[in-house]
Write a structure and sequence with these properties.
The protein is of the alpha/beta class. Helix content is about 50%, strand content about 15%. Helix 3 links the parallel strand 3 (about 55-60) and strand 4. The chain is elongated, with a radius of gyration of 23 Å. It starts with 5 loop residues before the first helix and ends with a helix.
């Protein structure tokens, strides 16, 4: 395991739980590598030159910026398969440091401070059909959801992940701030959140849209904007999303 952050931590624990053995953990920070090594029952190194040549698979779970310069710090690994875990980086970044290489991208938000490991779909790619099969077999031992995705497809899914995860979470952040300042109990909104996500498992999102913007209820929108006036950032997002929703459903009604 090359890397000691959230992805390395969660994937490492999942790999151990699935019956595999992690030989080494390597990271820039020796203390962090040691901590993760203890957790994963693996040798730990703060020097990448100490990476063994005996592993079947080398998982490079580092930041996108670190991957961009990987040829400067990772020694060439001729035996085994080297994979990175990034959604927005081409597999070709590994071409100069590996004899066989590919991608093992966990399509999930991974946090090392969460004791429970969530379901993790994996998107995989490789430099050859044989390498792809080896990566697929390994990924299937970790998850029931494994899919092939080339660089272009993976980038599109990564963008989709940002839109369904990062953006809504930012809205939750702003809304929690709003509720705190207005002495409103945010937990009262939680059942609504759960219901919204639950519906996505059964119906297309477009059919489940509700609210004043979908109805083009400008009176209610104006009242909400008045309430949000002390919070210009939230008000701006509210207005932009309302306009977009209204336009979207107006076009649908026109087409029908």
């Amino acid at each position: 395991m090359v890397g000691t952050g959230n992805a390395a931590n969660v994937l490492g624990r999942k790999i151990i739980q699935s019956g595999h053995h992690i030989i080494q953990v390597a990271g820039r920070n020796p203390a962090h590598a040691e901590t993760l090594g203890v957790l994963l029952h693996a040798q730990a190194f703060g020097n990448f030159s100490d990476i063994t040549g005996d592993a079947d698979l080398y998982i490079v779970a580092v930041s996108d910026s670190a991957l961009a310069g990987i040829h400067n710090w990772l020694p060439v690994i001729k035996q085994g398969i080297v994979v990175h875990t990034a959604g927005a980086v081409s597999k070709l970044v590994l071409k100069t440091v590996a004899g066989s290489y590919g991608v093992l991208y966990p399509l999930q938000s991974l946090r090392s401070d969460n004791s429970a490991i969530p379901e993790i779909p994996f998107l995989i790619d490789a430099d050859s059909p044989d390498t792809l099969q080896h990566i697929r077999s390994f990924a299937a031992s970790l998850s029931g959801k494994v899919a092939y995705a080339d660089d272009v497809t993976r980038m599109k899914l990564h963008a989709g992940a940002v839109m369904v995860n990062n953006f809504p979470n930012y809205l939750y952040t702003l809304t929690q701030d709003f509720c705190t300042k207005e002495n409103i109990d945010f937990s009262l909104l939680m059942p609504l959140l759960y219901e919204t996500v639950h519906r996505l498992e059964q119906y297309p999102a477009g059919l489940m849209q509700t609210g004043p913007a979908m109805r083009n209820d400008q009176d209610t929108i104006a009242k909400h904007l008045s309430v949000l006036e002390p919070y210009p950032g939230l008000a701006k997002i509210y207005l932009e999303l309302s306009v977009s929703i209204t336009d979207y459903y107006d076009r649908l009604r026109f087409e029908i």
